[in-house]
Amino acid sequence: MSALKTIFALALLVSAASKAQVRPATRDSRVAVAGAQLYVHEAGQGTPVIVLHGGPDFDMSYLLPEFDRLADKFHLIYYDQRGRGRSAAGVKADDVTLESEIADMDAIREHFHLTKVTVLGHSWGTMLALEYALRHPERVSRLVLMDPAPASTADIVRFRDERAQKWPVLMELKNAIAATKAYKEADPDALVAYYRQHFKPAFGHAAAYEALILKMQARFMEQGSDGILKSRAIEDRLVNETWAAPGGYDLHPRLKELSIPTLVITGDHDFFPFAAEHIAQAIPGARLVVLKNCGHFPYLECPAPLRRQIDIFLSRPPTADER
Q1: With b meaning 16 or more CB within 10 Å and e meaning fewer, what string describes 181-214?
Q2: Within 10 A of 292 (CB to CB), how many other CB atoms are there?
């Protein structure tokens, strides 16, 4: 068996094992917000946790079903962000702004009658979590920031520079794919080829990498070119409001104002671990955990250590201020 076939077979085994092990009771619904119907997925019972997916051109599908492992102890509330995934119907890219993202998140909180809630963000989702917490600190009991995206223009520039220096061949391939007509027209195969190059440096385990690529391939096929192009346009808008904003973007000085208990988790194979360090340094009392032999998707690569850290952090009895 070739090495590629071996990796592919291992990825299928990882995916099948995850599906066999993760069978929590789940509920899917929609929450009406101004100008959109947000698709919501719930799993489990217990402490409510709003889960914010990354991207900003992705939806929640890449987290499932593996992240539902936490549903044995927590009430996980995911939603596809406006204009993406199953929250795309009737939404134009021009309708999506950072402010609409924050308003949607608050609408989800209100829909579930949560005075305060734990917020868990992954990658780009950590940016939304932080922006929300800065605007509404009284509505957030705890923050879990999993493999956070850079919180400043300076850190996103550093990420791009380091990536070009460390993995020049991968970046050349990625840029070449991005220049093709197929990629520009959102052909699913071209997107898979692009993200193979993009995410390859962000993994410590080949099987987990292949499992993610399979998830993305299935989602691109389901989404279709129109949905992909809309998500891409939304990403451009949100990036232009943050990392590419005129005059720059930097959350770090404002994060010093937060008094919310915060867990920052990153992997030693993540492609911007310094972003996690800078965020943890900025938030008073934040705890930084670096998972060994793990990358940007720890729920696929090292689920047990990830779960242990989240359990320790969220199982502590809340203080009066956190209730």
Answers
A1: eebeebbbebbbbbbbbbbbbbbbbebbbbbbbb
A2: 10
b/e burial code for range 58-83 (CB count within 10 A of at least 16 → b)? bbbbbbbbbbbbbbebbbbbbbbbbb
Tokens for 27, please give them.
């509920």
Predicted TM-score of the model (pTM): 0.90
State whether residue 257 is helix, strand or coil. Answer: coil
C-alpha count within 13 angstroms, C-beta hemisphere, residue 92? 2
Q: Measuring CA to CA, which residue among 116, 112, 144 is closest to residue 128?
A: 144
pLDDT, position 316: 74
Tell me how far apart the alpha carbons of residues 25 and 42 are, in angstroms, rounded to a whole number: 8
- Given a contact cutoff of 8 angstroms between Cβ atoms, the answer to whether 275 and 147 are in contact is no
Percentage of the chain lying above the pLDDT 70 cut: 90
**67 Cβ neighbours under 8 A, 6+ residues apart:** 51, 76, 299
**3-state DSSP call for residue 122?**
strand
Preceding amide of 56 cis, omega within 30: yes
- Sheet strand arrangement including 74-79: 26-33, 36-43, 74-79, 47-52, 117-122, 140-146, 262-267, 287-291
Region of 83 please: left (phi>0), alpha (psi -120 to 50) or beta: left
Distance CA 36, CA 89 (A): 7
pLDDT tens digits, one per residue of 124-145: 999 999 999 999 999 999 999 9
Closest of 210, 216, 169, 226 to residue 189, by C-alpha: 216
Q: Tens digit of pLDDT for each residue in 151-167?
A: 999 999 999 999 999 99
Are 137 and 160 spatial neighbours (Cβ–Cβ below 8 Å)? no
* Domain containing residue 210: 3-322
Q: Work out how many domains the chain is built from and give that number.
A: 1
CATH code at 184?
Answer: 3.40.50.1820
DSSP 50-70: EEE---SS--GGGGTTGGGGG
CA angle 99/104/105 to nearest 5° reads 100
Integer Cα distance of 149 and 98 in angstroms = 15
